[in-house]
Design a protein that fits this description.
The protein is an all-alpha fold. It has helices spanning 5-46, 53-80, 86-103, 108-124, 128-143, 149-175, 178-186, 191-221, 233-244, 247-276.
Amino acid sequence: MTFEWSVIWDALPSLMEGAKMTIRITLLGLIGGTLLGFLTGVITTYVKVLVTWKTTAIAVATLAALYILLRLASWFGDSFLPGVPDWAWTVLKLAIVLALALRFASRVPVALSFLAQVYILVIRGTPIVVQVMFIYFALPLIVGWRIDAVWAAIFTLVINSGAYIAEIVRGALLSVPKGLKEAGQAMGLPFYKILAYIIGPVALRRMIPAMGNQCIISLKDSSLFIVIGVAELTRQGQEIIAGNFRSVEIWAAVAVIYLILTGFIALVLKFVEHRTQIV
C-alpha cells in the first residue's frame, strides 16, 4: 500500500473546517470551565465542609423540603388561583427561594461548598462521553427542551473542565503560605482584595503547568463529541474516510493537526510561565 499525499491535500479543506469547530468548542468550553472552576475552587478552599453521611442526609432533606414547598405552591395556585399566569407563579417560586436564601444567609456559603464538592465528585467520577450523552439525550426528556449538539458539547466541556480546574485552583491556593493571607488581614484588606492582589498572583504562577495540561486534555477530549454528531476534526476525518477509504492518510493528517494544536498550546503556556516566573 502506497501513501498518497494527494488524498490529504484533497481532504485538507474539510479537515480545516473540523479543526475550526474543535478550536471553537475547546475555547468556549475552557473559558466557561475556567470561570466555573475558579469560583468552585475558591469556595471549596475557604469554606470547609466535610462530605459525610450526616451532611449528605441534611442536604438531601433540605432539597426535598424545598421541592415539596415549591410543589405545594404550584398546587395552591392550580387549585385556588387558576387565573394567575404561569410567569407569576415562576416569580413566586423564585421569591420563595430568595426568601429562604436570605433567611439562612449564613448557611449559604456552607451549602455552596457542599454542592461544589458533590459537583466535583460526580463530574470527576463519570466519563465525559456519558456526560455529553446525558446532556444531549437525557436532559431534554427531563426538562423538556432540546439543546443543539454543538452547545451540548460546549456545555459538557465547561462542566467537565470546571471540575478539574477547581481542584487545580484549590491545590494552588492551598500551596500559598498562610502568612500572606494573615499579612493582608493585618493590613485591614477585605478578603476579595487579599485574594486578588496577594494570594492570587502567587497561586496563578503555580497553577500554570497544570492549567496547560488541562487545556491539552480538553482539546483532545473534544474528539469524543463525535458520539453526538458534532462536526469536529475527528468526525470530519471519519466522514472523509467513509468516502475514499484512505484511513492511513486521513488519520495521519488528523493526528498531525491535533499535534500542531496541542503543541501551540504548550508553547503559549511555556511563554506565559516564563514571563510570570519570579527571578
